[in-house]
From TrEMBL:
Major facilitator superfamily (MFS) profile domain residues: 1-411
SUPFAM superfamilies in the cross-refs: MFS general substrate transporter
Pfam family, one: MFS_3
Subcellular location: Cell membrane
Listed name of the protein: Predicted arabinose efflux permease, MFS family
Amino acid sequence: MVGTSSARLPVVPMGGDGVKDRRLRWLLGSSALSNLGDGIGKVAFPLLAASITRDPILIAGLSATAFLPWLLFATVSGALVDRVDRRRAMLIANLSRAVIVGGLGLLVLADATTIWLLYVMALLLGAVETVADNAAQALVPAVVPRDQLESANGKLQSVEIVGQTFLGGPLGSLTFAVFAAMPFLLNSAGFAIAAVLLIGINGRFRPVVTGPTQSLRVQLGEGVRWLRGNALMVRLAVFAATMALATELAQALLVLYALQDIHLSEATFGVFALVGGAGGIIGAFTAPRLTRALSRRTVLVGSIVCCGLAFTAMSVSKDPVTASLLFGGFAAAVVVVNVILGSLRHALVPDHLFGRVLGVWRTAVWGAIPVGALLGGLLATWLGTRAVFAISGVLQLALAAAVWFALAGHRGEVDSMSTAGTP
């Protein structure tokens, strides 16, 4: 194991499986509400932007700005999560998001919004989100037994999809059609209630330091060294970053694809997202079953292939129903990918290093998203939205082949997760 540490696993009162079940339920409840707020916002933000401008570069730039904080702050926020109580970090982050998006709702009511104001708000929300999401991921191994990691990750993916897409998407578009400020005010309420629900997760969730307190710089270096010394994690991070860039080429333009290429209205755009949410739910529930029936390597590569085929087909589809079903297939496949990668991270990374390693991972992976969004906007300006979906699909198919061959030497680790990290 690369790197040493002066920390050990957090001391938390266990009280049997029933206590852990209750903790998971509170975490799932909080995640459901915060993801509902996210889902409303992720539809309302591009719709508000599209009501201000139809410039594809500015629309894609808004998506890039939302993810830019992961490139700038993910590593630092990951180190922060390893120094503080993770539940408290989530609580404060959700309250902060409630204030930020609530303020935006008031500005929309006052008709005082510009595209640049949306950029600023997206940047602020993204910065706080790096803390909230890193802390939530770090909490998972503390609230579920080790043999239930894949199931717990599937449940978290389910509530994320239900909140963000299945409910949040349609609710965001419908409330935006009523009046533009309404989805942002609902978004704020969702974050506030999510913060309150975290109070139900009792226990300590801060890694206990057994030696001298290390500086932030030293702790960051420790996380980077561990990741660099684990060949499998490095390869998975590279694949995830490439996948994020390739998919975001097209996803950043989804609102323009829906409104201009398949001619949906602003209200029905949420229904389009609803089909994607349904696909995501299917993916979340089938991922654990697929990994029990087949090797994780096979399921991972097969899912990436499905993602690529879906976007390639969307590039030529003219029927809204067909396009929606294809997007649902993409959502199902990408959720399976996320469940597998999330479970491997939880199994491979030691708890006391998890926040820092996850921060480095997300700096690379989520930092690729704004790059993909901006490239997608530029390509759409020159070639059109449909061409961008085709390019994205082909890139994902090429990535699937690369993943299959690159993981050939790690089949035992991937399929058994036997190298699971412990301090």
